[in-house]
Amino acid sequence: MEKQPGKQAATEPADSGAGGGGGELPQVAGAQAARPEDRLTLLLRLRAQTKQQLLEYKSMVDATEEKAPEQILQDKQVEAKIEDLENEIEEVKIAFEMKKLALDRMQLSTALKKNLEKNNPRTSVLMDNMKHILKLNKLIMKSHQESWDLEEKLLDVRKKRLQLKQASESKLLEIQTEKNKQKDDLAVMENSDKIKAIQQNLQMEIQITTVIQHVFQNLILGSKANWAEDPAFKETVLQLEKNLTMI
Amino acid sequence: MSVLRPLDKQPGLNTATILLVGTEDALLQQLADSMLKEDCASELKVHLARSLPLPSNVNRPRIDLIMFVVNLHSKYSLRNVEESLRHVDATFFLGKVGFLATGAGRESQCSVHRSTVVRLARTYRSPLLFCDPEVDGFRVPVAQRLVRMLQICAGHVPGVSALNLLSLLRSSENPTLEDL
């Protein structure tokens, strides 16, 4: 008896709990979609389904049998335990995948061997493929080597640059210390007593000369001589005007 | 019964049932319609509910997958989902529960932060999907994903179990969670 797979949608009236409350949702009419399917295919599919569901139920039964009664764990412990279990699942999955890969590889290699023994090994397409693979592998190795060499060179250049930078850094440091030393020496020198005495003398001389300048100026002005006419005279007067402290 | 348990009933032949829990009826209806439009070899049944617990007087088939729909625009839907989570048995969370967050596209109207939902999904170790149901282009892929998840959780896909799918989905989530 061929079963027509149909599709339906049904809604549930939700239980009105404390404060909340659902309501009745209208029922939706189902849409009949018929898929043309072979009887045999259908039966095989149902068989696979039932197998899978049986597996699920079996595993649940095993799980509930194994579980020993545990005491109430705290939140953090529960989280840690869950993560451990998850990691276990992942590890089992990975191990299974690797075993499957190894098995596939073994099967493939035996099939290849048998195929090679059967056919003429010189002319088979397989040999061409293998030779091509070998050629490509050689190319790969060569380009790997080249890129490795280039990387080495790059590394050397970088090292040299670093060394140069360090050398320049030390040189600049030296220059700075020298400059600082010079500045210190200058400061020390300026503070010495000799300099102070010399400076005092200089000040005295400047003041004396300024007084003399003013005296001459007043003399010339007092004499009511026209100093603007004669250029040599003018120059002398202007020179007297010079402020000696600025020199 | 006030607590939902997986595998407590016999599965229907070639039938897969999904339960969508959420406060927005129109949204759930849209999702249900998109899912039913999908091409699927098994018979799909979609149950919609506002909140758990479900009334025990109704005869319903075994529920294979529960999707909690949280609307990021309303804090009420988040609270509703948190309330309903208490009525689900712990064994359900081995791959048969998922979270669906909607409305993440309009950042200005989101009253629930994205990280809250991410943390919720992380606490319950369940996958989190995002969906913007108004845009038709988003709804169809999400419906396809849901249908595929449902098929796996109902045991219709040989070789893949719900727990397997869970660990598959998990490994892509964890790196981003570490950044949070």
TrEMBL record, chain A:
It is found in: Chromosome, Centromere, Kinetochore; Nucleus. Pfam families: CENP-H. Residues 1-34 are annotated as: Disordered. Belongs to the CENP-H/MCM16 family. InterPro entries: CENP-H, CENP-H_C. The gene is CENPH. GO terms for biological process: chromosome segregation; kinetochore assembly; mitotic spindle organization. Residues 42-241 form the Centromere protein H C-terminal domain. GO terms for molecular function: kinetochore binding. It comes from Neovison vison (American mink). This is Centromere protein H. Keywords: Centromere, Chromosome, Coiled coil, Kinetochore, Nucleus. PANTHER family: CENTROMERE PROTEIN H. GO terms for cellular component: kinetochore; nucleus. Residues 47-102 form a coiled coil.
Automatic annotation (TrEMBL), chain B:
The keyword Transferase does not apply. GO terms for cellular component: cytoplasm; inner kinetochore; nucleus. Component of the CENPA-NAC (nucleosome-associated) complex, a complex that plays a central role in assembly of kinetochore proteins, mitotic progression and chromosome segregation. The CENPA-NAC complex recruits the CENPA-CAD (nucleosome distal) complex and may be involved in incorporation of newly synthesized CENPA into centromeres. This is Centromere protein M. Coiled coil: none annotated. It comes from Neovison vison. The keyword Nucleus applies. Component of the CENPA-NAC complex, at least composed of CENPA, CENPC, CENPH, CENPM, CENPN, CENPT and CENPU. The CENPA-NAC complex interacts with the CENPA-CAD complex, composed of CENPI, CENPK, CENPL, CENPO, CENPP, CENPQ, CENPR and CENPS. InterPro entries: Centromere_Cenp-M, P-loop_NTPase. PANTHER family: CENTROMERE PROTEIN M (PTHR34436:SF1). It is found in: Chromosome, Centromere, Kinetochore; Cytoplasm; Nucleus. Keywords: Centromere, Chromosome, Cytoplasm, Kinetochore, Nucleus. Transmembrane segments: none annotated. Its main location: nucleus.
